[in-house]
Design brief:
Layout: H1 2-12, H2 35-48, H3 52-57, H4 65-77, H5 81-94, H6 99-111, H7 115-128, H8 133-145, H9 149-162, H10 167-179, H11 183-196, H12 201-214, H13 217-230, H14 235-247, H15 251-262, H16 264-277, H17 281-294, H18 296-299
Helix pairs in contact: 1-16, 2-5, 4-5, 5-6, 6-7, 6-8, 7-8, 8-9, 8-10, 9-10, 10-11, 11-12, 12-13, 12-14, 13-14, 14-15, 15-16, 16-17
Length: 301
């Protein structure tokens, strides 16, 4: 039971959220690939799913670099990262100083855990335009992937010195401070991000987690409730809210939050873990028994 307790506590207290800079990149792959390998893989996949519209494009007049970039953006919005990558690469072949296409390629590398390739692209952008703030932000993200938090902090601060309105950089900076257990500094950065982007529930979730780990549970509850104003059915936020409520002994409210996040049976199980954490053994046993009664096929073992 203790092993299960530890696992569930890790699961139900959802960690800090990171999100990329403005574009949705999907299907990340592990490391071990270089740029050449990735392009070969994408070419193979691209050929396998070639569409009629792409064949039709070959009959049109040659496209410009901005047109290839716009086409890449269109594929990216559709979730087709392979074709997007190739359009951005074509744009760069026509104009190696196209920093926007280079940035998008770098972000694709970053999402595929190709940190070295991403770093090279971000550094190339800075050679072209030393004031391109998002390139420093990208270098910070690359450093975070490598758990080089001091380097990441330096890059995010540099990005913000060029553009104080980069709310994602404030969030990422908060994450680097959280990773180093500097929760006061993290809270300051999340608040700055929220001031710039008050409709982002992820920021409130991150803020709430910093308050939680700092032991300020009332403030954590306020932050999680703010997150739920825009993300009304997110199970992760409900679970985080329940954990904070449990820390204050508000077990009935915690159970209701758990239930909204993961259903009745899981809520009883999570509540049992909370009781166990607080040394309330009899209450924990009762909660686990309710979990079994609610869903015996799942909790029998």
């Amino acid at each position: 039971m203790m092993v299960r307790f530890k696992k569930v506590i890790m699961i139900i207290l959802v960690g800090f959220w990171v999100f990329s800079g403005g574009c949705s990149f999907r299907n990340p792959q592990g490391g071990g690939l270089n740029k050449s390998d990735l392009k070969k893989l994408m070419a193979l996949q691209n050929n396998q799913v070639a569409s009629k519209e792409e064949k039709a494009l070959k009959k049109l007049p040659p496209m410009t670099a901005p047109e290839y970039e716009a086409l890449g953006d269109q594929y990216l919005r559709q979730g087709d990262i392979n074709r997007a990558f190739f359009q951005y690469d074509k744009a760069l072949q026509l104009d190696k100083n196209n920093v926007n296409s280079r940035y998008k390629i770098a972000m694709i590398f970053l999402q595929r855990q190709l940190t070295d390739e991403a770093t090279k692209e971000f550094e190339e952008i800075i050679k072209i335009n030393k004031n391109y703030a998002r390139a420093y932000e990208g270098l910070g993200l690359a450093a975070m992937q490598q758990k080089k938090y001091k380097d990441a902090e330096k890059f995010f601060l540099q990005a913000l010195s060029l553009n104080p309105d980069l709310w994602r950089s404030h969030n990422f900076l908060g994450l680097t401070y959280s990773s180093q257990l500097n929760f006061d500094q993290a809270i300051d950065e999340y608040k700055k991000a929220i001031a710039l982007k008050p409709d982002q529930w992820l920021l409130f979730n991150n803020l709430g987690l910093s308050y939680y780990f700092k032991g300020e549970y009332e403030e954590a509850i306020k932050a999680f409730n703010e997150a739920l104003k825009t993300e009304t059915s997110n199970p992760k936020v409900y679970n985080n809210l329940a954990m904070a409520l449990g820390k204050l002994g508000r077990y009935d409210e915690a159970f209701e939050a758990f239930k909204k996040g993961s259903g009745q049976a899981q809520a009883y199980n999570n509540l049992g873990c909370l009781y166990l954490q607080e040394g309330k053994i009899d209450a924990a046993i009762s909660a686990f028994e309710m979990a079994i009664a609610s869903k015996p096929s799942f909790y029998a073992k």
